[in-house]
Design brief:
The chain is of the alpha/beta class and 422 residues long. Helix content is 42%, strand content 14%. The chain has an 8-stranded mixed sheet with strand order 2-9-8-7-6-3-4-5, with helices on both faces. A 3-stranded antiparallel sheet has the order 10-11-13, covered by helices on one side. The chain has a two-stranded parallel ribbon with strand order 1-12. Helix 1 runs antiparallel to helix 14 and helix 8 packs across helix 9. The longest helix is centred in the last third of the chain and has 30 residues. The two termini are 21 Å apart. The structure holds pyridoxal-5'-phosphate. The site of pyridoxal-5'-phosphate has 13 residues, from helix 5.
Amino acid sequence: MDRDFLKMSSGELSIVRRELEERYAEFQARKLKLNMARGKPGAEQLDISDAILESVNPKFAADGTDCRNYGGLEGLPEMRQFFGEALKIAPENIIIGGNSSLNLMYDAMARLMLFGTQGNTPWCKLPKVKFLCPSPGYDRHFAVTEEFGFELITVPMTGNGPDMEIVETLVREDDTIKGIWCVPLYSNPEGVVYSDETVSRLAAMKCAAPDFRIFWDNAYGVHHLYEEIELKDIFAECAKAGNPDRVLYFFSTSKITYPGAGVSMVASSAANCAEILKHMTIQTIGHDKLNQLRTLQILKDAEGLKAQMKKQAELLRPKFELVLRTLEKELAGTGLAQWKNPKGGYFVALDTMDGCAKETIRLAKEAGVTMTGAGATFPYKNDPRDRNIRIAPTFPPLEELAVAMELFCLCVKLAAVRKLMA
Ligand code: PLP
């Protein structure tokens, strides 16, 4: 029998369906309770950073600042220096936030909405605001722009980033399009790395809106599973193209140390940083400096960060390799699914046959394996082809992941066979 389900006769399909249903019933009988939905680190990844809790807590910054007290709105100099070195950004263009970069993104969007930027009309005063959402993408990004009432425009992802032909055409012609979400390295969920050409084109494209902003969320900027991949410098490209204020760059140590107690940052042009600080000073007297010191105590510098990320990668590689090996073994050549092989980040994304993602996830759930909801990777949680599924391999222990992946692949096949026979 051909392995390609699309070439099977209906007789062959019914034999396969019976086998799959038997195996599925066996899984159901096991009463599993597994979860591949959560894009969070496993406990063993968190343990790597426990020196943060075990070390003597420092109180003073290098310049003598008493970190127990108020002050230091833009963050400790050594924290800005650390991020600057690690990400090759000028430290004076970096502002430190609290523990969450998503919080900084939300605030940045809220400022654009309420106050506008550089003399442009605040977005809340405009009859319509649209935002580009390269998809599949990160549901919480889309949720922020949805909450502010923007119209979300889906832009397809390619292997090199968002489809730039479409992006360039849209932003050139429509001044109500005010920005784009980007996860440029190991994108959530496909693990796509933006090519140099994509970075340059985003920086240089002609935008009808003078206050068009790129939300450059480099959440996985140092999360290499294998060799390091370097992104083209978006700030340099923007400056070269005469668009120095276009980018708001976000990053955090959430998936470097602790997601619940990391340090976040936003970087931008001098003009944008001045605006951010003007509003931030009304919002807070300063973020948690003791946590900045604690974090630096274990990460130290760019070399320390690299060492930390090597340890993270050693824990994550076996999980990613297990997922990819199982997909290859169970689904390659079946015609039922496609996926990319990410070289870093936190996820693997899989496309089922059209119209099968919801059913696959329902089947997995009924047999005890929770996946990220179907549609979550698209604006309004609406995947027009109902095919994209995000697999999050980091949280479950390896043995659980193996069982969950076996069942998941079975569900991909069962949903597809039933659809083919319907
Ligand atoms: N950005 C992306 C692309 C993410 O995947 C995540 C978490 O999954 C975040 C941001 C959240 O970042 P933070 O913990 O810094 O708020």
